[in-house]
Amino acid sequence: MQHQCLARPTPPPRRFDLVPWLSGLAVLSLVGVSVVRKIAAWAGWDLPRNVSIFLGDYTWWVYWGSVVVFGLVVMRRWDNTYFRWRTLSIMVSQTIFGILLMGPLKQELSVPVFWQRLHLTWPLHMAVVTPYWKDKLVSTFVYGTAMSLFAWPIVSMLIGMRYCSWFCFCGNLAESAGDSWRTKGPKGPSAQALDNIGYGILGIAALVTGAAWLAVTWPWTVYDIGVAWFLATVVGMGAYPVLGGRVWCRFICPLRAMLGWFSNRGRFAIYTDDHRCIECGTCNRYCEMGIDIRMRARQGMPLHDTECVGCGACIAVCPRYALSFYPFPSPDEAVEARNHRRFRRRFKRQLATPREI
Amino acid sequence: MEPYVIVGNGVAAVSAVEAIRARGDRTPIVILTDQECAFYSRPSLYYIMLGRIQWEDAWGRPDWWYEANDVDLRCSTAVTKIDPDRHTVQIENKTDIGYSKLLLAVGTQGRVLPWADQHLRGIVTLNTLLDVVGISELLSTASRAVVAGGGLTSIELVESCRHWGVETTFVMRGDRFLDKQLDHDEAEMIHSRLRAGGTDVRTNEEIAEVQGRVGRVRCATLREAGEEIFCEMAGCTVGVVPNSDLVKQAGGETDRGIVTDDQMLTTLPDIYAAGDVVQVRGSDGKPTRSEMLWYVAGDMGRVAGGNMAGGDERYRRRVFLNVSEFCGLDFCGVGSIVPGQPEVEETIIRDEERGSIRFVTLDGVLIGACFLGDIRLADIARGLIAKGARPRDLHSDHPLRLLLERGSP
Q: Per-residue DSSP letters for A167-213?
């Protein structure tokens, strides 16, 4: 008797896995190349033209290749509909925005700059609301403001910080190449105490942006090197094998802090069922953002968290299906739903097990 | 002031501590437990053995939790006697510890059959974290195992053996697996899957004796078949016995377990009980059957803790829901699903796609649902059962009603 939705074979014993080594090599080489280019630029070294072009292309191709190749690995590893769609979104968005519009095809495609910048959001990408691109000021400014202060916050309030797990540059590398170290995120109260650094960075980013409008450029340079390069690239990506893929997102990223503030006040939550929770702690282990999901699950309370990026890992690993993106039906909802269309939509979602949504 | 003393260190005890502290009561708490280690998640042991969970994750609370809550945890300290008049408990070395309020969250222990009551390496139960360590060690070298019992713990042990590639004989005394919850056809689904995986399922059978050699299990003899099975491991998972002796000796009311009212207070003054050991007195004054589930113990612990700290909380039984997984099938029992009761009506839907679903109705009211395979409707069913809903009154498009009508003859 074959059950379509049921078969969940016991995992085989762990053997040697090449994927962490390959993805680690890719990510750390990206960090290395970035360091070399930064030092060369800072010291004024005159790199041979071939080397310079090679390093530039290397960054693009290895970034894109990592997202696609390790994205496919993630799809295979997490055999789950939600992960499949999310990883597809990662691969497609990085192919379009990361490569086709900004990479080697930038010159060939004469697209307006705001299409290139569509996914860029202040303050992760500071340039979009500053007079950085003098020639495209109106289009970048309007788009940048619309996306940063209206579109993504509203999306975050509705469906959580899907920006971070479905579209973002940094987050997408973490969800594909960084997936092997998903369990290494720092846990516990001492790590959680550092979670609010992002708000400080957000304030600094606002000051830097204001200064740029007043034509004071040195804060911009400092921020660019200190935060956008050192903390995001060197610390954020370099820490993948040690602290998991989301160190930058969790502790430092000002955009995550901003969207998290909105997400926490929106309707997004991870719903829990204390009937099913056995406090096994697997959700906490797989949470890259270090959220104490188990504590909420054992109380049966929905988890509203400024940190949660909606990656779906905790839902997928729960051995008892105690977590869900959709509310578990209360007696009232199950019986007294009179609005059939809405009820059936909710019901359809409810019908999907965590491994299918 | 004398401390609150909690005997036992399971989920009921920990929930009680949290409830006490949540009420702002800073009275020191002493936890006395005969276990060797801090609180861990008992239902996780199965998943640990299947390799799905790391055992480090199963620690229920972080290291600093006991200290932060001002709890004095005394491991490996068995309580031998309680004296309700003097408000003391006596521990193994005859020391008396005074209490102002006492919570007994002592749980249950596995029933030991005569053949299992001998010192042989290879006779195991599956109750504690240490058992898992021992079983894992055994399974890594064993080639054959015998497991006696027909409950969820038994199949957990059988599945662990299967996972480790150990050939297993599953011996149960009844005519089918999990006979309190599954009907014949559902149990047969499990049996056939077990047999397809190479497990020898013996029904209406029990182990007569287990023989050892040089301190190790060597063979088990079946009573009916008279057959001798050579094995390195014999699992005894034939149900549990509540640890109600302390209360019985002290003169409190016990049935199978400790009898409490809905405030978790036993018949002895200032002594509360919570967890698997408890039978709550029903509205008719008789002790009800205990549901030995993780969330039930947590609920009871919270109520007991709240009342110890001076609150007035009542334990309300929620709709039974238990999720498990074996032989590649998800299992979810909701509400009252005992098969073969004469007064109830059963609707059974069984197909390739969904596995088996059985709805139990009493006078048209849904009282239970048993899912084997596709458990996606379990939450909806739980909602309906909690509400006391009649499936016939549901909207005609309601998936559960559609399903019920498809299944009815």
A: I-HHHHHHHHGGGGGGGGS--SHHHHGGGGHHHHHHHHHHHHHHHHH
Distance of CA A42 to the CA centre of its chain: 30
Render pLDDT for B287-343 as a digit per residue (tens, 0 to 9).
Answer: 999 999 999 999 999 999 999 999 999 999 999 999 999 988 899 999 999 988 889
Which of A1, A278, A281 has the CB atom closest to B352's CB atom? A1
**From CA B391, how far away is CA B347, in angstroms rounded?**
11
ipTM score here? 0.88
A269-351 CATH, one of 2.40.160.50, 3.30.70.20, 3.40.109.10, 3.30.420.150: 3.30.70.20
Residues in A lying within 8 Å of B, measured between beta carbons = 1-11, 13, 188, 273-282, 284-285, 298, 319-321, 328-335, 340, 344, 347, 350-353
Q: Which of B11, B42, B376 sits opposite A351 (nearest CB)?
A: B376
Which of B46, B57, B357 to mutate to probe the A interface, most A CBs <10 Å? B57
CA distance A111 to A105: 10
Q: Write down all domains in chain B, each with its CATH number in brackets.
A: 4-109+240-308 (3.50.50.60), 114-236 (3.50.50.60), 321-407 (3.30.390.30)
Kindly give the pairing relationship between strand B71-74 and strand B79-83: unpaired
pTM across the whole model: 0.88
Tell me the pLDDT tens digit for each residue of A28-72. Answer: 999 999 999 999 988 988 888 888 888 888 888 899 999 999 999
A&B contacts, CB < 8 Å: 126
In chain A, where are the structural domains located? 19-264, 269-351
Sheet holding B4-7, edge to edge: B71-74, B29-32, B4-7, B101-104, B271-273
Of B188, B155, B163, nearest in space to B50 by CA: B163
Task: Verify cis geometry, omega within 30 degrees of 0, for the bond prior to A131.
Answer: no
Which of residues 294 through 333 in chain B touch A, CB cutoff 8 A? 294-295, 298, 318, 321, 323, 325, 328-330
Residue B394, chain A, CB below 8 Å: the answer is yes
A87 vs A67: CA distance, rounded Å: 9
The answer to whether B212 faces chain A, any CB pair under 8 Å, is no
Is the Cβ–Cβ distance between B239 and B151 less than 8 Å?
yes
Q: Which of residues 187-206 of B touch A (CB under 8 A)?
A: 189
